[in-house]
Every structure is written in C-alpha cells, then in structure tokens.
Automatic annotation (TrEMBL):
GO cellular component, one term: cytoplasm
Region (Disordered): 262-284
Domain of life: Eukaryota
One matching Pfam family: His_Phos_1
Species per Swiss-Prot/TrEMBL record: Lachnellula cervina
InterPro entries noted in UniProt: His_Pase_superF_clade-1, His_PPase_superfam, PGM_Phosphatase
Listed name of the protein: Putative phosphatase SPAC5H10.03
GO molecular function: phosphatase activity
PANTHER family per UniProt: BROAD-SPECIFICITY PHOSPHATASE YOR283W-RELATED, PHOSPHATASE SPAC5H10.03-RELATED
SUPFAM superfamilies given in the database record: Phosphoglycerate mutase-like
Residue ranges with Basic and acidic residues bias: 263-277
C-alpha cells in the first residue's frame, strides 16, 4: 500500500519579509522559528512518521528540524534531503549550496540550538544532494516542463517508498506542482486580474473572503514582489497588490494520499477528507 504523505511548506524566511529575492538560500526569521514551535506542538503524526524528506535549502531543513524534532528523535526515522523538492524559480533566494558547503551551513544554523535539533542534524542524509543540484539547469531548470517532470519524479519516488507515513517539507510554489492543484489565471493585465479558483476542485461560496490568490503562470521573477490581501469573490482583483507564487501559508501542513490509479511510473496525490475537514479555508 502506498504511503500517506504530509506536505509542509517551510516557515517564514528572510525573503518572505524583505521581498528581496537576492538573499542567498534564505534562512528562517525569528517569526518563522516561532511558527515551527507552534507546528511542533500541533503536528498530529510525530509518533507515526516513518520518514522525513526535505528540500536541501536552508529554510526547509530548519523547518523540518524545528517542527518535526519528535519524529526525528525516533531511532528508525530517516531524514533525507532531496533536490527534487527544491523551489521552482532560479532567483538567488532559491539557489542552494553544494553538498560540502551545505553541511557546514547546517552546522552554523543549529550550532547554538538545543540538543534535539543537533541530534536531528546528525541524522541528515546528504546522499541525494548531487553535484549540480543547485545549477537550475537541466532537470533542475525553472521552466515549467522541467518542474512538472521533477514533481512527477518525486511523486513516483514517494509512491514506491516502503514507509507508511512520510513528511515532506518543501516550498509553496513547488507544492502546487507536486499536488497538481492550482488557482488558475484567466488573464493578467497591469494591476488587474481575474482568476478562477480550482484548487482541489473546490469553489468558494460567492462573497467569501479568500486569504490570497495564487497565479502560478505569471513570470516567476515576480513571485516575491507582492503582499497577500483579502479578496472578495467573484474572483476580480483590481488596483491592489497581488500575491504571486503560492497559496500555501508558511508552515501550512496538509495530508495527502495517492489516487487509486497511481503506480510506480505515474502517481498523483489527492488531499484526504480528514485534511480537508481539518482546515477552515479553501485550497492548499
């Protein structure tokens, strides 16, 4: 039976606050660390997680260590870094370090932290952090076709894993590709846009306040330039700031299972009914 998957977006990082995409491999802010502390208290599966997977970027490693420490403290739980889970765009904030450099950076991140974090760091398996993973070329390219292929590869890999429950800590934009759930743009012109909400097949009621809209097909370089706002339906955004890139909030967590027609060659994720019922807003 294929595993159950918990998907987690990283906590607030430096580039989320400064809106500066030039911060190399952005780290968590103090607020982001506080978000991790809250997730640590509320995460429902610390005792049942069999495997933790994270993007090799610093903010996802930090989020995994600080949020999933009880899971990682269990002897048989592995902690793998997978470049397939890295963020989409090639902006500097999404460009990681080579393996040797990354191992040094991780020690810097947690050198002054409590022993649980240090113990979790010692469990990190860097084997998959291959040369060129941070090149944003070839299979790591930011072009949509490459990202879709990378997401498909990760889904198939997860499907074939022997573990029963896996936690994956990744990035807001990439999680849309991984789950194949989107807020689809109708058009974009200047500061006016109309979008249809189709994430996970749900349509919010007319007049409902939606926390933010995502328009993933817009140029990736715009991803971090806009702040989220509250928007009323039907779906018109005009003369306002538009959140581009993701509708996953920092540290947001959802539970997914594989669709019945999935196999080791082509696998697809579906959010569980339990996960849908547990949250109070629509979309991932």
């Amino acid at each position: 039976m294929p595993p159950l998957i918990y998907l987690v977006r990283h906590a607030e990082a430096e580039h989320n606050v400064s809106r500066d995409p030039n911060a190399r491999d952005a780290r968590l802010t103090q607020r982001g660390k506080a978000q991790c502390a809250r997730l640590l208290e509320t995460f429902p599966a610390h005792d049942s997680i069999d495997l933790v997977v994270a993007s090799p970027l610093r903010r996802t490693i930090q989020t995994a260590v600080l949020s999933l420490a009880p899971s990682l403290a269990r002897e048989n739980v592995e902690f793998l870094l997978l470049p397939e889970a890295q963020e989409v765009s090639d902006m500097t904030c999404n460009v990681g370090f080579l393996r040797e450099e990354l191992e040094v950076e991780v020690q810097k991140l947690f050198g002054d932290d409590e022993s649980a974090a240090l113990a979790a760091c010692r469990k990190i398996n860097y084997t998959a952090v291959v040369d060129g993973w941070n090149s944003k070329k070839g299979i790591w390219d930011s072009e949509k076709s490459a990202v879709r292929a990378r997401a498909a590869k990760l889904r198939a890999w997860l499907y074939a894993r022997p573990e029963k429950i896996i936690a994956v800590v990744s990035h807001g934009n990439f999680l849309h590709y991984l789950t194949e759930a989107w807020v689809e743009p109708m058009y974009f012109e200047g500061k006016t846009a109309t979008a249809k909400v189709t994430a996970l097949g749900l349509t919010p009621p007319k007049g409902m306040i939606f926390p933010f809209l995502s328009v993933p097909s817009l140029p990736l370089e715009l991803e971090y330039l806009y702040q989220p706002i509250a928007i009323k339906f039907p779906y018109t955004i005009s003369n306002c700031c538009l959140r581009i890139g993701t509708s996953w909030a920092n540290c947001e967590t959802h539970q997914f299972e594989f669709s019945p027609n999935s196999n080791e060659h082509e696998a697809h994720l579906t959010e569980t009914a339990e996960s849908k019922n547990a949250r109070k807003h629509f979309g991932p």
